[in-house]
Input
Amino acid sequence: MLELITRFGQVGIGSLQNLGRSGLFLLRVLTRKPDFRRLWPALCIQLHFVGVLSCLIIVVSALFIGMVVGLQGYNTLDKFGASSQLGQLLALSISRELGPVISALLFAGRAGSALTAEIGLMKATEQLASMDMMGVDPLGRIIYPRFLAGIIALPLLSLIFSAVAVYGGYLIGVQWLGVDAGSFWSNMQASVNFRVDVLSGIIKSVVFAFVVIWISVFQGFTCTPTAEGISQATTRTVVYSSLAVLGFDFLLTAMMIGGW
Amino acid sequence: MRTRQRYIEISVGFFMLFGLLGLLTMVMMVSGITEFSSSKGYQVTANFTDIGGLKVRAPVTVAGVKIGEVTRIELQPSQLNARVTMMIRPDKQIPYEDSSARILTEGLLGSNYISIVPGFEDQDNKSHPYLRGGDVIAKTQEAIILENLIGQLLFNVKK
Output
């Protein structure tokens, strides 16, 4: 019995230590003084990797999610004879919730896991250690551009997601199911407020970008430098970021609805 | 190597462009350019005995057209009624004399809004023909609350 409690305490202390270490790591990355001449090419390559190459999965899933929400919403709203409100349902649910959350989840799976694996492999092949030996700071050279690229890329990706998903809903609702195009757009525009709905979605996706990229970079940087360690770190990245995104989503929504 | 760097830069440029395009779509098509300059205008107040479910940012309309919004609602301690402050767009001039404000409901169960019924334009009152900042709309009509109506109806039916 005492053994069990001891184990429990160890787990608690271990996770707290991890949290503190990741916080210190974040602090050290953020207080880096960037060398802009060096930073730009590296940032460009990372933006290409986490942003441009994630575009396809984001656009395709956005199209399908918009179409599904359109179909489901139409079927439910039509029972009340309120199918003209489809645009409102679609735009609000996508710009406030689905856009930021699903693009963050996809981003964690597509880009976050790859970043963890890349940095982990660098550590396993002792590239990070040799950089340190040469007097090149791995935090500034490897971590910082990836961090920045993730924070820039995810909000843009979630904006693309929202726009494409609304278009997908439009395709289903207006082109296929025959909702009137005028009432679709006008109901949407009347109910969606830029500051309340669109901007809160953007704020959410900035927070998600920060959390996801922090977790994936930290997991890569601190993984056990073996093949098994890298695979575990990659798994942890996806699991932790997904949980953190959903948890923060609840928190942020509660704050935004509560009128901070 | 050079061409690869160039390809990467071009694709990143397009990516940024698409992101901004997404923002533009969300602003123009989805939220329909809500008034960014909603803070401009003049403020008028009106006192209501009961505001029902009126909320801050509820629309203020004349003849059904939105001309402003409610900016503040507070209880006046002396008279125990509600003072509603509303911001009205500066290009909308409403005759001062005899104007009245009513709290109405959109549809049967919709949200509350304020409807201003303009009075007549007073030709004699050259000094103060239109509503201006700080004015108080004297005539008001309180919100119609469905529960009260039902209560009255039931009371009358019993008799």
